[in-house]
Amino acid sequence: MAKTWICSGCGLEHPASPDAPPLDGCVLDLGPVSDEELGDLGPHTRRWLTFDDLAGQPHTLDYRDHGQGVHSFRRAPRLGIGQWSFLVTTAQGNLLWDPPAYIDDEIETLVSGLGGVAVIATSHPHMFAAQVSWSHAFGRAPVLVNEQGKQWLPRTDDVIETWDGEVQILPGVRIIRLGGHMPSSAVALTAGGSLLVGDTVAGSLDPEWLSFQRNYPRHVPLSAGTVQRLVDYLEALDFDRLYTLGGDAIERDAHTVFRNSARRHIRWVSGEFDHLT
After folding, report:
1. Bond prior to 221 in cis (omega within 30° of 0)
2. What are the start-end ranges of the E strands in 3-77?
3. Which of 35, 60, 206, 269 sits a CA distance of 20 to 30 A from 180?
4. In tens digits, what is the pLDDT along the chain, a chain of 277 residues?
5. Contact yes or no for 186/177 (Cβ under 8 A)
6. What's the domain range around 43?
């Protein structure tokens, strides 16, 4: 009997088959990572799991209500990358952003109780997770995949639609491709001024500080030019709250925190302070 297979290392679902893929069979596993950091995660699959396997493992569901129609949740202990997934609720339907890498009765009940899912989108391919399974569980909701990231799709399906640039996906909810971490990296902006950034922008040990990285496991920073590009685009957006896939939440003055963090990042990576090193 064919089963949907989940990569234990990154949480991406792969096409159904009777037998598990090989351990190097994840679409994000291209072996040693190149200098160009094209998006692959290097060797990372420890085992392949099914939804039944995951449902049988002891786990809990962490949930946060951030207000203004923004909710987040994740599985504990962490699965795959361990991201927080977000549900943005509106009167015209809900956005599921960076979906979980699994689906079971508990999490499906939570999401259904918040109004279900009208559309699914991700910040970048590392967050594709179980997006097709989530779509099928909620009336085959459209799954939006950025044109620049479709090469990383592990599981294709007719629910997938491609997009690029900037798109309003629900009244008052926009998704915007910015690039940086990956060419397809995107953010979602809500009508209430919340910016969901995935890890296009990331938090830090300082709750009033943001970081900008090309590769997080290896701590490779984004260049000054790329961060300036993010600044140029985000300066025009009206947001006061910012949420990352790692669970970092800046719930006031987020635009100022972003601007100050970017300015100092640019100065450091440009070599302005090399005399201090």
Report:
1. no
2. 3-7, 13-17, 48-49, 60-67, 70-76
3. 206
4. 899 999 999 999 999 999 999 999 999 998 777 777 778 888 899 999 999 999 999 999 999 999 999 999 999 999 999 999 999 999 999 999 999 999 999 999 999 999 999 999 999 999 999 999 999 999 999 999 999 999 999 999 999 999 999 999 999 999 999 999 999 999 999 999 999 999 999 999 898 999 999 988 888 999 999 999 999 999 999 999 999 999 999 999 999 999 999 999 999 999 999 999 9
5. yes
6. 3-276
Which residues are CB-neighbours of 231 under 8 A, at least 6 positions away?
Answer: 258, 259, 262, 263, 266
Q: CB burial class (10 A; 0-12, 13-18, 19+) of residue 192?
A: middle
Tokens of 54: 């995951």
**73 and 88 in contact (C-beta within 8 Å)?**
no
Tokens, residue 227:
């961060």
Q: Which residue has the tokens 């040693």?
A: 32
Strand partners of residue 71:
65, 87
- Most distant CA pair in the chain, distance: 64
Give the torsion sign (CA, 209, 210, 213, 217).
Answer: positive
Partners of 67 in the beta sheet?
70
Question: What six digits make up the tokens of 213?
Answer: 């990285």
User: Under DSSP, is residue 221 helix (H, G, I), strand (E, B) or coil?
Assistant: strand
Give the Cβ contact number of residue 219 at 10 Å: 9
Domain harbouring 230, CATH code: 3.60.15.10
